[in-house]
Design a protein that fits this description.
Layout (H helix, E strand, L loop, with lengths): L3 H5 L12 H9 L3 H9 L2 E6 L2 E6 L2 H8 L5 E3 L3 H7 L9 H12 L4 H24 L4 E2 H17 L4 H16 L12 H21 L24 H32 L1 H11 L11 H4 L6 H13 L6 E5 L3 E3 L2 E3 L4 E4 L1 H4 L37 H18 L2 E3 L7 E2 L5 E2 L4 E4 L1
Parallel strand pairs: 2-8
Antiparallel strand pairs: 1-2, 3-5, 4-12, 5-8, 6-7, 9-12, 10-11
Helix pairs in contact: 5-10, 7-8, 7-16, 8-11, 9-10, 10-11, 11-14, 11-16, 12-14
Length: 432
């Protein structure tokens, strides 16, 4: 017999899509895909994307219901991502084996590891400021942000230099292009090329790991890492975790930085408001103080700007889980074995007030009515959050302390949304 709680449960609304071809087309073309369907069906609905049933959720209640039931869900990625990351990758693991690998890889993002990386990151920011200052023509700032975010992981964390890093970059770009593709390795297809690039990437990362003890980067911190049974992780296992770091940490950080620069340059009154704070900060910080010099306590306006960028143009538009049993999300019963997408981009604009506007002050004044989880949550919350925040804060203070940038007119400043938001014409910028 149904309990009184069961009686209040609503059935899972469905868009009635069958093949999911048109839905997939709309998903990739329309940035408001989820928002429109939430309006029609409520905070939890199911559709089909190319034959893959998917439940979308938004809002504080739905997200906290999902994250409060970690034993009822597991990680999930589309098959193309799963295959390209590999079976050892912690992204493809659950339970104790996931937790063990998070513990090992998490050492790369501890407070002392970040302190070790700070001098290298500060020097990259200074190099970019000098390049912008010396440039006689406009520079595409979005491309420079990509180069910076890649170098932080490849050089500062993994310890790669020069041609080793450049060759890694070439293969990584081939690998990335097929991440969200049809996972069939037909000769000449982007997926087949990506699988080959994956083999080369793993070989290169294996070599990097062998040199880990030379003190470049942070890989020596991984020595002695154990799996869930207390057995040392094999090199094969560790290199797949390193590949995951490139995937998870590069595009995301570059996107946040490009979107942040774009909003500041498009909103001079916010830039002036932020500059009042930045002008009072010391640049560069002493490396041992870099992780706290521009944190929420010492730079509250910068903190608000970063939160607002992650709300309005989140680098990761959504993250996934699969239900292991039926569970209730915001009053809706979601059956077992369903893929759930937490639609962060839509959720961040869902709530009372002017949530379509870029207004960092909201995070200082009245708080923000939307539930914000730009780095995900629960057992799979982003491992690289402290590094991403450090990179973003150092870059913003470093550039805005020294330079006055302006946008070149007549460029397309709209955002290309996939895989992560980025200005279409590359954010062409000059120093005033
Ligand atoms: C602005 C930059 C970044 C954003 C917005 C971001 C966001 C996210 C999100 C939403 C997830 C999924 C969490 C979940 O499933 O609950 C995630 C996972 C992850 N991120 Fe980040 N991330 C960023 C930068 C980085 C960096 C710099 C690194 C490392 C170099 C990194 C490493 C990871 C890893 C390893 C995971 C998988 C965690 C797991 O499955 O247990 N991320 N990130």
């Amino acid at each position: 017999m149904a309990s009184s709680d069961d009686a209040k449960l609503r059935p899972l609304p469905n868009t009635a899509a069958l093949s999911g071809v048109l839905e997939a087309f709309a998903f990739f073309r329309d940035p408001a895909f989820a928002q429109k369907r939430f309006k029609r069906h409520g905070n939890v609905f199911e559709t089909s994307l190319l034959g893959q049933p998917m439940v979308f959720i938004q809002g504080g209640q739905a997200i906290s219901d999902l994250l409060a039931q970690p034993n009822a869900v597991e990680g999930w990625w589309p098959e193309s991502v799963r295959k390209l990351l590999g079976s050892h990758s912690l992204a493809n693991r659950n339970g104790a084996s996931h937790r063990a690998r998070r513990r090992v890889i998490g050492q790369l993002f501890s407070a002392s590891a970040l302190q070790r990386y700070s001098a290298g990151i500060i020097s990259m920011v200074k190099d970019l400021a000098d390049e912008l200052q010396a440039a006689t023509t406009a520079l595409p700032l979005a491309e420079r942000m990509r180069r910076f975010a890649f170098s932080v992981i490849a050089t500062t964390v993994l310890g790669l230099e020069g041609t080793d890093r450049d060759e890694l970059f070439v293969d990584f770009e081939i690998w990335t292009r097929a991440l969200f593709s049809i996972p069939i390795a037909l000769p000449g297809s982007s997926f087949a090329k990506a699988l080959k690039a994956r083999e080369r990437l793993l070989k290169r990362l294996q070599k990097v790991l062998l040199k880990a003890s030379n003190g470049n980067g942070g890989l020596d911190l991984l020595a002695g890492g154990l799996d869930e049974a207390g057995i040392p992780l094999t090199d094969e296992d560790v290199v797949e975790q390193l590949l995951l770091l490139l995937f998870a940490g590069y595009e995301t950080t570059a996107s946040s930085l490009s979107c942040l620069m774009r909003e500041l340059l498009l909103n001079p009154q916010v830039e002036t408001w932020l500059r009042e704070e930045i002008d009072g900060l010391d640049w560069p910080p002493a490396p041992e103080q870099a992780t706290t010099a521009y944190d929420q306590v010492n730079a509250p306006k910068l903190d608000a700007v970063v939160s607002e960028i992650m709300r309005l143009t989140p680098a990761v538009g959504g993250f996934f889980r699969r239900t292991k049993c039926a569970l209730v999300i915001d009053g809706v019963e979601v059956p077992k074995n369903r893929v759930v997408q937490v639609a962060l981009a839509a959720s961040n604009r869902h709530g009372a007030g002017d949530l379509e506007a870029f207004r960092p002050q909201r995070h200082l004044d009245d708080g923000c009515s939307a539930t914000l989880l730009p780095f995900g949550g629960g057992e799979r919350v982003c491992l690289g959050k402290p590094l991403a925040e450090l990179e973003i804060r150092l870059m913003v203070v470093g550039l805005f302390h020294q330079l006055r940038l302006h946008l070149i007119p007549d460029q397309d400043l709209t955002l290309q949304m996939l895989p992560s938001p980025t200005p279409r014409d590359g954010l062409l910028t000059k120093v005033l």
